[in-house]
């Protein structure tokens, strides 16, 4: 037979508390003493109470849902970032509603409206189609990751330092020409710092270099084709040893595969560095040297900033932040086979 559903009245009768007190336990537990909270918690366990989440949402308007919009999932960086965000459920108990925007502003605005209809408590944005001013107008807790963020809270990598680290290592590898490959991005986007750090280092060290920026298209296949064209272009360059710094690990892995497909190995004339330290970097046919964004730390800071804002909104008289909070995480150089001279000499 179907088990009888435990009600607030059952819990009240078992604990000798009023139904109002039981309701406060669920909706405002801090208003009760620790002793009474523990008594009610033990009663719930004994009676086999199963919380009705929908009823709780209807009662206090708090859904415990957070929305996420990512541009795509074929770049390993976004997939790993999403994986790390979803893994925070065990610590923070927030559930996530995820939409993939495909870099379409109209579609992403529709997604935001859909998320608001689900009464989300906060929003994490990794896509770039909407300005931070437009996002701030929604008047809900928002944190953006690695994008323009003048009007909302944000978390990003120290991209400039990452560009310096990559260029410096390629110079240490005695590359004759350094090449950076990136999407066409405006200077106000944090990832532009990778280009700037790379350029400044090459200029300061007086090393020949080139920055190749382009539109990689809307899919993995279009990205492969564009990198194939760039590989052919680089093959024609007059340089004995070429140092490649690609803006993410997915690009780096595709480029590495193109090199290996032609030469059957990673030849001494190429050194390759990616950016992210997403799993594809360590799992590539030759593990790829990369600039570790410390994705787990980025996510930790993102959730801290979002929860700070969401907790404030739960107060009877919430006080919005006086100004957006922006956090930056230091990158870490991870050297692997694609820049390690010892690999070439057979020492590893």
Characteristics:
348 residues, 45% helix, disordered C terminus, elongated, 6-stranded mixed β-sheet
Provide an overview of this structure:
The protein is α/β, with parallel strands linked by helices. The chain has 15 helices and twelve strands. The strands form two sheets. The chain has a six-stranded parallel β-sheet, with helices on both faces.
Ordered list of secondary-structure elements with their pairings:
Layout: H1 8-15, H2 19-27, H3 34-47, H4 53-60, E1 65-70, H5 76-86, H6 89-92, E2 95-100, H7 105-117, E3 122-125, H8 132-136, E4 142-145, E5 153-157, H9 159-172, E6 177-183, H10 192-204, E7 209-214, H11 220-235, E8 242-246, H12 249-263, E9 270-276, H13 279-283, E10 289-292, H14 295-313, E11 326-329, E12 332-334, H15 341-344
Parallel strand pairs: 1-2, 1-3, 3-4, 4-5, 5-11, 6-7, 6-8, 8-9, 9-10
Antiparallel strand pairs: 10-12
Helix pairs in contact: 1-2, 5-14, 9-10, 11-12
Q: From the alpha-carbon coordinates, what is the Rg to the nearest angstrom?
A: 25 Å
Mean pLDDT: 91
Indicate the percent of residues in helices.
40-55%
The dominant shape is elongated
Distance between the termini: 66 Å
> Which series of helices and strands comes N to C?
HHHHEHHEHEHEEHEHEHEHEHEHEEH
Structural class: alpha/beta
């Amino acid at each position: 037979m179907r088990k009888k559903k435990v009600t607030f009245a059952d819990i009240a009768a078992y604990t000798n508390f009023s139904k109002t007190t039981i309701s406060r336990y669920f909706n405002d537990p801090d208003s009760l003493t620790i002793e009474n909270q523990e008594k009610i918690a033990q009663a719930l366990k004994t009676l086999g109470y199963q919380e009705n989440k929908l009823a709780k949402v209807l009662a206090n308007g708090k859904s415990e849902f957070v929305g996420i919009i990512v541009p795509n999932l074929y770049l390993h960086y976004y997939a790993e970032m999403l994986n790390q965000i979803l893994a925070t459920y065990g610590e923070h108990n927030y559930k996530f509603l995820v939409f993939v925007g495909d870099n379409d502003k109209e579609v992403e605005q529709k997604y935001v409206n859909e998320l608001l209809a689900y009464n989300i408590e906060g929003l994490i944005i990794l896509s770039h189609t909407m300005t931070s001013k437009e996002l701030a107008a929604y008047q809900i807790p928002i944190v953006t990751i690695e994008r323009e963020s003048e009007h909302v809270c944000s978390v990003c990598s120290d991209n400039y330092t990452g560009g310096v680290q990559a260029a410096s290592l390629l110079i240490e590898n005695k590359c004759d020409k350094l090449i950076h490959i990136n999407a066409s991005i405006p200077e106000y986007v944090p990832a532009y710092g990778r280009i700037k750090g790379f350029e400044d280092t090459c200029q300061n060290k007086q090393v020949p270099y080139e920055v190749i920026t382009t539109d990689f298209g809307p899919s993995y296949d279009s990205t492969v084709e564009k990198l194939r064209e760039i590989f052919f272009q680089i093959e024609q360059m007059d340089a004995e040893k070429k140092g490649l710094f690609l803006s993410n690990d997915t690009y780096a892995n595709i480029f590495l595969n193109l090199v290996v497909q032609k030469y059957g190995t990673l030849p001494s004339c190429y050194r390759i560095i990616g950016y992210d330290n997403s799993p594809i970097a360590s799992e590539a046919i030759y593990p790829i040297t990369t600039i570790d964004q410390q994705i787990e730390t980025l996510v930790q800071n993102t959730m801290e900033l979002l929860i700070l804002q969401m907790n404030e909104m739960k107060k009877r008289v919430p006080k919005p932040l006086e100004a957006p909070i922006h956090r930056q995480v230091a990158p870490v150089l991870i050297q692997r086979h694609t820049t390690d001279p010892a690999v070439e000499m057979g020492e590893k």
